[in-house]
């Protein structure tokens, strides 16, 4: 069946009370994720599309690093190049809703739906996993760089600043590292936060 016949006309584009909105993945220009999100949200208000476009999400995590001796926190996208939208894109007969389809496709920065011209909703379990990860990562600040046992690091903060050492242990839950440094000819074990060291 051609795409044109699968799209419901604008006049019929009313959300069904029996059919909840579903999540879809949009492929967007890299680096334009935030602009796309803001544009979709702004236009949904001004064009009175709030009943069709429910929520726009960019999964991110908070990361920290040390720059010039200072701890800096920033956001890192979990899925660069993708934005997720909770919306009414299909009617009761599973046909694409024209109004929503064109609203999304005509947004600056949107390349298209992640799975092409016949987009399918993301499975409910995948959505729960994604939203759960987001909530979990909002509460934790992770290191910008991943550390493993045996990595050589340089302490970037505190009394042992500029000392080089080896990672002996990684505590992901607490965001702590056990680092062995050589002080006065002896090996000293330190417990440091992720952000306090840099890989060498």
Secondary-structure content class: alpha+beta
CATH class of the largest domain: Alpha Beta
Helix content: 10-25%
Distance between the termini: 58 Å
Count of beta strands: 14
The assigned CATH architecture of the largest domain is: 2-Layer Sandwich
Count the domains. Answer: 2
User: On the 0-100 scale, what is the average pLDDT?
Assistant: 82
Residue stretches low in confidence (pLDDT < 50, at least 5 long) are 1-5, 7-13
Apparent shape: elongated
In CATH, what is the homologous superfamily of the largest domain?
NusG, N-terminal domain
Note the main sheet: 5 strands, antiparallel
If strands are numbered along the chain, what order do they take across the biggest sheet?
13-12-11-10-14
CATH fold category name of the largest domain:
Alpha-Beta Plaits
Order of helices and strands: HEEHEEEEEHEHEEEEEE
